[in-house]
């Protein structure tokens, strides 16, 4: 029997991914930063929000269809940008992108992806967005987005909440980080997971050598075992709203800003012409004392007053979480870690299984709360 057949929810996928992946790789994507307070609080904040169902509503015909940044999609989800997808599966970004296309939701390719954007555009299909970290050398930043445009990417997500690299101590304890270093602990870690070593790392070594950051500028396109200078150079602590405005002027497609937690920053996104903003604390991976993203969503929605679409990221695990985010003002959510867990278990099939689970749970929740359409979900169903 397939492993996926026994994965009835995304926590099951997480447990299956943990069994398959080396500890260092698993914790690199599963944990947050420092003491993991923010990661746990993201989940706990959703659990504290309760639903107040409407009774005796005809829910015999239900729909999850919604408009996301100007286009209708069958479910209010997108796949979040995640740089470690290439370590979950051989060319894991392509696998996740294929899953997103199969479900009919947008896929966001991370700057630090290990599959070239041209390969994603050629082989994945579907609606594609490219996620960008602004570089200290702005001209190299412009070259990256020009490359994404030439490859056919429709949207650009500018991530603004990581000007400096966060303090992820557990990577050092596990002997794992990027750049990846061969240490006795990391070698033992990989040796304990021979299937992953053969089917992921082994395939890279046979076909191309250690994976690289394929979408970095050419001079920084180092292998994951290379110098840390590539990672440091992909961030800058000097980024301002003027830089984001310059990117908006240069990029003619859909333009989204990710990492917003304050109402005044949300208003600034609207004023500079963004097509959408993404409320996010980076899944708890940056500031361990950051507020839960879901706890500030309603304030941000009130501040922008419908003038700009709001998407939500950080802590989505169940279909009911999607309902809560929409009720608080989001038009759609980004799904992160669960897609990685699914990809680690069975590539594109596993990632699609993750998204289908969320879609099914959303459908069930809609029926139980008396909201047959996504558009029927509003704050009145929250207690």
What distinguishing features does this structure have?
383 residues; alpha/beta; TIM Barrel; 8-stranded parallel beta sheet; two-stranded antiparallel sheet; 10 strands; 45% helix; globular
Structural class: alpha/beta
CATH superfamily: Aldolase class I
Major beta-sheet overview: 8 strands, parallel
Give the number of helices: 16
What do these coordinates show?
The chain is of the alpha/beta class and 383 residues long. The protein has one domain: Aldolase class I (TIM Barrel, Alpha-Beta Barrel), CATH 3.20.20.70. Helix content is 45%, strand content 11%. The chain is built from 16 helices and ten strands. Helix 13 links the parallel strand 7 and strand 8. Helix 1 runs antiparallel to helix 16, helix 5 packs parallel to helix 16 and helix 15 crosses helix 16. The chain is globular and about 60 Å long. It starts with 9 loop residues before the first helix and ends in a 14-residue tail after the last helix. The relative contact order is 0.20.
């Amino acid at each position: 029997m397939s492993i996926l057949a026994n994965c009835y929810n995304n926590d099951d996928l997480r447990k299956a991914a943990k069994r398959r992946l080396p500890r260092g790789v698993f914790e690199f994507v599963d944990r947050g930063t420092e003491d993991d307070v923010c990661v746990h609080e993201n989940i706990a904040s959703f659990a504290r929000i309760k639903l107040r169902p409407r009774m005796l509503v005809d829910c015999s015909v239900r729909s999850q269809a919604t408009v996301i940044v100007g286009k209708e999609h069958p479910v209010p989800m997108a796949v979040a940008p995640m740089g470690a997808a290439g370590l979950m599966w051989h060319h894991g970004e392509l696998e996740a992108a294929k899953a997103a296309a199969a479900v009919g939701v947008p896929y966001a390719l991370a700057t630090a992806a290990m599959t070239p954007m041209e390969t994603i555009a050629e082989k994945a299909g579907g609606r594609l967005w490219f996620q960008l970290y602004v570089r200290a050398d702005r001209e190299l930043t412009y070259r990256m987005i020009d490359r994404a445009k030439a490859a056919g990417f429709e949207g650009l997500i500018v991530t603004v909440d990581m000007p400096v690299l966060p303090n992820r101590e557990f990577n050092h304890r596990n002997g794992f980080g990027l750049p990846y270093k061969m240490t006795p602990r990391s070698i033992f870690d990989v040796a304990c997971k021979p299937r992953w070593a053969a089917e992921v790392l082994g395939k890279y070594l046979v076909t191309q050598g250690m994976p690289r950051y394929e979408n970095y500028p050419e001079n920084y396109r180092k292998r994951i075992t290379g110098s840390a200078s590539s990672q440091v150079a992909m961030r800058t602590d000097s980024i301002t709203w003027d830089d984001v405005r310059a990117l908006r002027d240069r990029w003619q497609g859909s333009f989204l800003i990710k990492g917003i937690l304050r109402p005044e920053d949300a208003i600034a996104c609207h004023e500079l012409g963004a097509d959408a903003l993404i409320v996010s604390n980076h899944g708890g991976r940056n500031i361990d004392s950051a507020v839960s993203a879901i706890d500030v969503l309603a304030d941000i929605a009130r501040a922008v007053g419908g003038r700009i679409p709001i998407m939500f990221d950080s802590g989505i695990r169940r279909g009911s979480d999607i309902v809560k985010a929409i009720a608080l003002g989001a038009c759609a959510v980004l799904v992160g870690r669960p897609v990685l867990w699914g990809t680690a278990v069975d590539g594109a099939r596993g990632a699609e299984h993750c998204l289908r689970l969320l879609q099914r749970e959303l459908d069930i929740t809609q029926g139980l709360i008396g909201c047959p359409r996504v558009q029927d979900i509003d704050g009145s169903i929250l207690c």
